Amino acid sequence: MLRSDGLQLVHEYTLNEALRRHMYAVELAMRAMAERAGEDPERWGLVGLVHDFDYERFPNAAHSATEEHPADGVRILAARGLPEDMQRAILGHATYCGIPRDTPMAKALFGVDELCGFLVACALVRPSRSLADLEVSSVKKKLKDKGFARGVNREDVYRGAEELGMPLDDLIAFLLQALRPHERVIGLGSA
User: Fold this and answer.
1) Is the pTM higher than 0.85?
2) Which of 119, 137, 140, 142 lies closest to 188, judged by CA?
3) In terms of C-beta distances under 8 Å and separation of at least 24 residues, what long-range contacts does 1-5 make, across chains too?
4) Can you tell me the distance from the alpha carbon of 181 to that of 59, in angstroms, rounded to the nearest whole number?
């Protein structure tokens, strides 16, 4: 499965532009994480790109491990030839699926997913609407504000850094550096 195949799925299944941008951000973060780990940025990036492609069409309010997001999406991806390790990483990003995050790819996806969403939310409330002037200390302060970006699971943010073996400050700084050059792709920065 190629990136172009993944992008086609994202556009076919996801109408919400903010959700598409989230997947682009996670793709960029995963590419950077792959380079850091000496792994294949194409494979890791594809996992980041398609991890939520089914979220809009198959919402999973009940947190079923076998139905709806991400299980339905992974079945579609498997039918299109996505390798099993990539399928498991996508299933593992949803803790309710019960799939262990036992590979560097799976740990990276879990570690960057919620945090990418949070970083974008932090940037959107800044006058600059940019990551360029967003600092780690500001992000950490916002993490403590339970009323801000309520949809972001703070426990997953902290657990993701822990599973990666990275101090949260370092993970935030790393992702800011990875995403800043591409912020227009994810809907940030000046128009």
Assistant:
1) yes
2) 119
3) 1/46, 1/77, 1/80, 1/81, 1/82, 2/46, 3/42, 3/45, 3/46, 3/49, 5/80
4) 31
